[in-house]
# Entry
Amino acid sequence: LAFGSLLGGTMTLIGTPPNIIIASYREGSEAFGLFDFAPVGAAITFAGVAFIALVGWRLTPRRGDESGDDDKLFSVGDYLTELKIPEGSPHAGATLHNLLAESGEDRDVVVLALIRDDKRQLAPSTYKVLQENDLLLVESDTESLQAFLDNTGLELGSQDDSESEEDKTARKSRKKELNEGEVQLTEAVITPESSLVGQTANRLNLRERNGLNIVAVARQGHRLKRRLGDIRFNAGDILLVQGFEDTLTGTLSNLGCLPLAERGLRLGSSRKTLLASGIFIISIVAIVSGWLSAPVALVSGAVAMVLTKLIDAPGAYRAIDWSVIVLLAAMIPVGQALETTGGAELIAGQMLAIGDGLAPSAVLVMVLVGTMLLSNVVNNAAAAILVAPIALSLSAELGMASDAVLMAVAVGASCAFLTPIGHQSNALVMEPGGYQFGDYWRLGLPLSILVTVVAVPMILLVWG
# Structure
C-alpha cells in the first residue's frame, strides 16, 4: 500500500510535491505539464507493482500472532463478561459514573451495554441510574475484572455450567448486536496529527466528553494486554471504539483518527462526494488546458470546497501540513543559496571529478540514487530542493539535457522505500502492519534497484 502510493505519485505533476518543485526549476518559459511525468512514472509504476505482486511480497516479514490465532485482531467476544447488580447492592439507585469511579479500575473495565428486563441499551450514559438485577456487558481482561468485582461487590452474570442453552444463545446474541443499530464498534487508526498522541485514556475522559468508548488498543499488529487506562497512545495505534453511528465519524475526525475501511463507515453523502469530485475535476481541467497553473487551480479548488461547505474552516486548517510548509520555507532559501553562492557548482565539480569520464546514463544513476538515499532520511520535497540546483550545475558542466537530470531528481525524491521515515505513507502503515524499522529495506532495496534500472533508460529515451 505504502510503496504503491509512492510509485503512483510519480506519474503526474501533482502526484507528489517533488514533481511540482522540480517543475519550477525547469529552464525556459514552458513548465512541465500535468502528464509530462507520465512516461517515466508509468514505466516504474508498472514495473514496481509487477515486482511486488510476483516476487517482492515474499520479502516482507510474516509475523503471526504468538498464540497462532489468525482470527481478526480484536476478538471482542473473548473479552466480554456479563456482571449483575445484586439485590441489596449499594450501587442500586446510584449512577454508572459513581460505580466506575468507586471501583478504582474505571478505565480497565469498559461498559458496552446495559440490559434491563431483556431490553438492551448500548453505550449507556455514565449518568444512567442503576437498578437491582441490571446486567452490565463489560469488556475487560481477567485481572482487571477480578479487581472490579472485589471493589464493587457485583456478581458474574449467568455464565456458569448451569446456564441454559437458551440463556447462552441470548448472551451470544447480545454480543453480536454490539455493532448493530445506532451504536456500533469500529476500528480506527491514530494519525500523526491526532490530539490523542502522547495522551492516555485516563486523562482524556473520552466517554464523558465525546461519548466514545475505547474498548481495546493494538500496536504493531498485536492487541496490547496492558491496563487500558495507562496506555499512552502512539501515532499508528489501532483503536477499537464504540460510539453512536450518527456522530462516530465526526468524533473520530475531530480526534484525528481514520476509521478503517473494512468496517464500512460512510464518510459522506453521495451529493457531497459528487460535488467534491466535480470541483477536483474542474481544477484538473484548468491545469491541463493551461488556463491556470497547478498551485492556483488546486488552491482555488480547496477554497471552493470551503465555500460550498464540503469542509469547514477548522477542518481546512487541520488538513494543511504546516510542518511541511515551514520546512519548505526554510529549505527553499537554502536551495537558492546553493545556486547564488556557487555551492551547487562546487558540489557538482566534486561529483564530476569522482565520475570523470562517466557516460550520461551513469551520471543519471548517480543523481537518481543520491537523491533517493537523501529522501529516505529527510522530507522528499526538501531533498528535491537541495539536489535540483546541484543536478542543474552538473548537467551544465557535462552538456547534458537539464530536463533529464531534473527528471532523475524527481524520481529519486519520490521513491523513498528504505525507511519508515522517508515518507508519511511508510510511517502510516508501520504500526498497523506491525513492521519494524529494518523491515523496509528488505523489500525497498530491490525495489529501489528496479526503479533505477527502469527509470534511467526511460529518461534517456524521453528526455534525451
In short: The chain has three domains: 2-63+320-463, 76-173, 183-263. The beta strands are 80-84, 110-116, 119-122, 135-139, 155-156, 183-190, 213-219, 222-223, 238-244, 257-259.
